[in-house]
Design a protein that fits this description.
- The chain is α+β, with helices and mostly antiparallel strands.
- It folds into two domains: 299 residues, Rossmann fold (3-Layer(aba) Sandwich), CATH 3.40.50; 94 residues, no CATH class.
- Helix content is 28%, strand content 28%.
- The strands form three sheets. The protein has an eight-stranded antiparallel β-sheet with strand order 2-1-4-5-6-7-8-9. A six-stranded mixed β-sheet has the order 10-14-15-3-16-17.
- α9 runs parallel beside α10.
- The radius of gyration is 22 Å and the shape is globular.
- It starts with a strand and ends in a 5-residue tail after the last helix.
């Protein structure tokens, strides 16, 4: 797998023009690129800000891409109230989303962009889609669809490949992403990597009420984002056999008051989760919400073949202070080992932000027009002065220097 180095969004809810990480905005048809700082995103990105500042909307951009890939544009927009609801109020131009991504062992990063506009009948359609290798700010397109034309033009980077049959492919469906419809080809590894990224996005809005029930019909590896992920993940991870039991034993010390975790089958053969508290083995239905939530997050981080992109909204919800510390420890260990996935977290919890490096923190704020701006925490002058003087940041650096932004 690889890693997202930057993402930008235009005209998506309160995100009229927002980017984080390494962004090259000429691909998103934005003229002013001075408001974006080109720093590559790390394995974990923390987004914080006041209520209504656009944190949830930003994570929803990933879910929107995944929904469009899986179900098509109409269903993805309908799920969110339609084009008029998604499009930034009072703004002109299409909805635009761009991702800069680098595949493991690839010298050149790739850029993937889509723009969504309306045709002459007022119906939303995918107006532009591009996947390109990038050297500096210069794109070398692998596929390019523009202005509703009925072809995708391939530009083959390998001169040794006969592109006569591949140069143009008929394309008349403007409600589904081109990358979802094109066959894989060894000449275009970027196509496969972006497809795997978007297809594997896991949006984790954990719901303990749903998580307490088993879903016999759950079949997806990374699960329903509202909570079935806990049990679907258990079903999936059972294929690891003894390794799964070893994993459960390894993560037990993370949980307060828990001395053991095990899985046993019910009468229908479905896995049931039990936690050992004191001398008693209790089923998940009798365990606190916080323990279930923490267990879900830790399993996602410890998964042998995790989702390529994990999004967790307000991870501190339902966790006491000790559980938050344990989750932060798990995230720190996640950052310090070889990974095949990337983590995006939104939070209001100062302790979460204090525990990570300011280079990984982005502060979302609403400007005077009601739209969102994003700034990297380490770009604050106070933080810069401390770091330039060779001093270490205090443990409560965010609480002390960014509390006014909350």
């Amino acid at each position: 797998m690889g890693k997202i180095e930057g993402i930008w969004v235009r005209n998506y809810g309160v995100l009229r023009q927002v980017g984080i990480g390494s962004c090259f905005l000429q691909f998103a048809y934005v003229n002013d690129d001075t408001i974006f700082t080109p720093f590559q995103l790390s394995s974990t990105t923390v987004i914080t800000g006041t209520n209504g500042s656009g944190k949830s909307t930003f994570l929803d951009v990933f879910a929107f891409l995944a929904d469009t890939y899986r179900y098509g544009l109409d269903k993805a927009l309908f799920k969110r109230g339609g084009y008029d609801i998604v499009h930034t109020l009072g703004s002109e131009g299409p909805i635009s989303i761009g991702i800069n991504y680098r595949q493991d062992n690839e010298q050149l990063p790739v850029t993937y962009t889509i723009s969504i506009g309306r045709d002459i009948h007022g119906r939303a359609f995918i107006e532009t889609e591009m996947l390109a290798y990038r050297e500096g700010t210069t794109p070398f397109p692998v596929l390019y669809l523009q202005n509703g034309k009925n072809t995708i033009r391939y530009i083959v980077p390998d001169e040794g490949i006969d592109d006569a049959a591949l140069n143009r492919i008929e394309f008349t469906d403007y409600l589904h992403l081109g990358i979802a419809q094109l066959p894989e080809h060894p000449a275009y590894p970027a196509l496969k990597s972006i497809r795997q990224l978007i297809e594997g996005i896991h949006q984790n809005n954990f719901s303990t009420d749903i998580a307490r029930g088993l879903s016999a019909s759950a079949t997806t590896k990374f699960a329903n984002p509202r909570g079935y992920s806990l049990f679907t993940l258990i079903k999936y991870m059972e294929q690891y056999g003894d390794n799964f039991a070893v994993l459960l034993d390894r993560i037990v010390p993370i949980f307060p008051q828990i001395s053991g975790v095990r899985v046993q089958k019910d009468t229908d053969g479905n896995p049931m989760l039990f936690f050992r508290i004191s001398e008693n083995w209790l089923p998940a239905t009798r365990v606190s919400d916080g323990i279930l939530r923490l267990f879900n997050y830790v399993l996602l981080l410890e998964e042998t073949f995790p989702a390529p992109l994990i999004c967790i909204e307000e991870a501190e919800n339902g966790l006491d202070l000790v559980a938050c510390w344990r989750l932060l420890d798990a995230i720190t260990k996640y950052n310090n080992r070889d990974k095949t996935s990337q983590l995006f977290i939104t939070t209001h919890h100062n302790g979460f932000v204090d525990a990570v490096k300011p280079e990984t923190v982005w502060v979302f704020e609403q400007n005077d027009t009601g739209n969102t701006s994003a700034n990297r925490a380490c770009d604050d002058l106070i933080i810069q002065n401390i770091l330039e003087q060779g001093q270490t940041l205090p443990q409560d650096w965010f609480s002390r220097y960014f509390e006014t932004k909350m």
